[in-house]
Amino acid sequence: MKKSLLFAALLTAGLNVTAQQAPKPYGVLPTQRQLKWQETDMYCIVHFSMATYTDKEWGFGDEDPAIFNPKNFSAMQIVSAAKAGGFKGIVVVAKHHDGFCLWPTKTTDHNISKSPYKNGKGDILKEYQEACNKLGMKMAVYCSPWDRNNPLYGKPEYVTKVYREQLRELYKNYGPLFMSWHDGANGGDGYYGGTREVRKIDRSTYYGWDTTWGITRKMQPGASIFGDVGPDVRWVGNEEGHAGETYWATYTPHAPEEGKVPANGFVKDYEGTEGTRNGKYWMPAECDVPLRRGWFYHESQDGQSRSAYTLADLYYKSVGRGACLDLGLSPNKDGVIANEDVKILKDFGGIIKATFAVNLAKGAAFKPSNVRGNSAAKFGTTFLTDNSRYSYWATDDKVTTPTLEIDLRTAKTFNVIRIRENIKLGQRIEGAAFDAWINGAWKEIAAVPSIGANRLVRLPYNITTSKLRLRITKSPVAVAISDFGLFKEPVHLVAPVIRRNKQGEVNIYTEAPVSSIHYTTDGSAPTISSNVFNKPFMLTAGGEVRAAAFEGTGKSESTVARFGFAKEKWQAITKADNAAAAIDENESSYVTAPSNTFVVDMGEERNISSFTYLPRQDKNTSGMVTGYTFAVSTDSNTWQDVATGEFSNIKSNPVEQVVPLRAAVKARYIKFTASKLISGEGISIAELGVR
After folding, report:
1. pLDDT tens digits for 228-265?
2. Any idea where the F5/8 type C domain is (predicted)?
3. Which CATH number fits domain 365-487: 2.60.120.260, 3.40.50.2300, 2.60.40.10, 3.40.50.720?
């Protein structure tokens, strides 16, 4: 009997020891460099180079270095603006697709030493590095694999003697780096040393990525490598700044062609938005999005930057879903961030700082349904508010759907919930719900399909309660939750929406009632003394409208809308189903013509200084124009070509394209011809316009 009791005691003791061991990791796990990247949360990618001066998104490679001469370039101003926004680092675009290098490289003459900037002695990369060091910001580099200038592009020598050597120079002279950023755009037409031809590559094999990444690992071991296929950080599959509502840090990339190896620019990129549950690799997503409409500065986009509250929304849809946010900054031709963008960054940083300044869950009493091995000291709920991402509350192996009650002790008001998993043990949870104690009963207020490194639940309304409950609704293994927080986002006024119909009538409205809306049409910022909007007004000749909402002493951010000539008299000459959709002032509708040409009769002669093209907005690239010719006529018989070019990056960033003409022209008829489509047959247009 004594032996039996002794055996039972030893067995129980053994079980308790086992139960108090940490949970076994689940699936693939992050490396130390990936953890450091994840903790960064937000950083900025800075596009400032040749395209800044040519008013393009992608340079062709034939640009003269003499045009690069910023009058007041200030890396300190640029990096300071990013830091004021709460961003923790910058990615410097050291070389874009045009091949111009912002450092004095030995690999090509197409570099800053051949420009007049600082009499050929300038080094933009060094200035960024010094600014980051002074301001305590991280730094990374972007070096485009595609080079539309270099005569060797397309040959093996370009990779071995140019591209990899450029990376070696950057890694040697400008570290330490927290990332090495590799773009997926590669192969196509370009200058290529004067040949002006199309060069295609095998995107699956040309760059020898395994060998190229080996250079990064050797020279910058702490840098996470970004690319469509990682290997450390993947592209999220859009340039809209958001990850999927369901989001997995694990990922298995697939090539678009069966039997081929996936590579940068050669992957089913849409799969990156959500990732792959139980994927082959730990490869979290970066959500990149420009602050302005394009990645490079364009004067025509002044006043149209994303607002601070739009950035806050993107923060919740990127960082708040477990990814990181990479915001594009575009210094102007002087070499600084425009004042309006500086203010937006500062305002955004203020919103985030104010929202997360106080965790209302601190000091609460937590009541879990289970604690691993009954060991509160090792796996208890006190770790949920200790500001560590890696200390955690854990459950026994067999308890995969626990509950956690949170007694706030007094009624508190919040509108943001934060929950995190300890990702050192993998991404484990597949579903969770949140309940509030309201009117004597539990009421579900939110649910999420995944958690991961960070999940922010932005509620549509304020919740006031003294008790909450977390329910894990699905998990294949025991949970390991490192953080729980409740926060209150400050009240704000939403900026108005400005719309114009085909007749030229402008309407301005807000999503919620406000005391008043004020607007201007002279380019000035709206104030309480500006015109009061109380009924629609006509703007047939085009122009700029700015509007803001007012409530008490509060003022919303301003909305800016630019319009061309009204289209009441316009008629589509091209025969196509739904042809009128191309000129109906409705961004959601579109036409697909049977050919690559679309002709419009404006009904009267107009003096035209620019034209606009909005591609279809349904995330389908069929018929989307990338190469174009714009022609005009006074009689529809004799045509004059007035603009020819390419819409660079339109597939990833399908915003309105504005093409200024070299000189104003008089015309009644306009003809838009696609010389190159992203995919499909027949030109597609959401909206065509002239200014």
Report:
1. 999 999 999 999 999 999 999 999 999 999 989 999 99
2. 525-691
3. 2.60.120.260
